[in-house]
Specification:
The protein is α+β, with helices and mostly antiparallel strands. It has a single domain (2-125), classed as 3-Layer(aba) Sandwich (Aminopeptidase), CATH 3.40.630.30. It is built from five helices and seven strands, in the order E-H-H-H-E-E-E-H-E-H-E-E. Strands 1-2-3-4-5-7-6 form a seven-stranded mixed β-sheet. Strand 2 and strand 3 form a beta hairpin. The longest helix has 15 residues, at 12-26.
């Protein structure tokens, strides 16, 4: 059984491990191996602690906790970065690679949607790498649709395209 709660300082290292392992699993064959291999839990933990402590931060973080006490997933969300009024954005969602397909990502996304609605957002946006077909299917099942917007990111010299997805909350 898994429950979702607000992330706190004690969760940061576990969330960073999930994020790094999640990147390395989900983006293998998409993002250059050199980029993925250079990622470390320690670097991510330091960055995440800074983000969590930032006094003006508008993002929210939720974690999925297994009954045994293990952190098994994380979602970060907040106001839409494109400036779209009344719209939230899911900035990141990762589940421990060995736990994917167990409904944890859906629980996290649902909890984020509830909180976004509570903040007055009527819609949610997110960005997905075009070649990440598994994530695209996941978000489409959750009601998201690609809206035609794209952006490119460069990882170790490789330009990868992201697609923007939106859904009504």
């Amino acid at each position: 059984m898994v429950h979702v709660r607000e992330m706190d300082e004690a969760d940061v290292a576990a969330v960073s491990a999930i994020r790094v392992r999640g990147w390395q699993a989900a983006y293998a064959g998409i993002v250059p191996r050199t980029y993925l291999e250079a990622m470390t839990v320690e670097d991510d933990t330091a960055r995440r602690r800074q983000l969590l402590a930032h006094p003006g931060r508008t993002s929210r973080d939720l974690v999925a906790i297994h009954d045994r006490g293990d952190t098994v997933g994380w979602v970060c969300f907040g106001p839409c970065r494109s400036g779209a009024h009344a719209s939230g954005e899911v900035y990141a969602l990762y589940v421990s690679p060995e736990r994917t397909g167990q409904g944890i990502g859906g629980r996290l996304l649902e909890a984020a949607h509830v909180q976004m609605k509570g903040q007055g957002f009527g819609a949610s946006a997110l960005w997905v790498l075009a070649d990440n077909r598994r994530a695209r299917r996941f978000y489409e099942r959750a009601g998201y649709e690609a809206d035609g917007a794209t952006q490119d990111d460069v990882y170790d010299g490789a330009t990868l395209t992201e697609l923007r997805f939106r859904c009504v909350l």
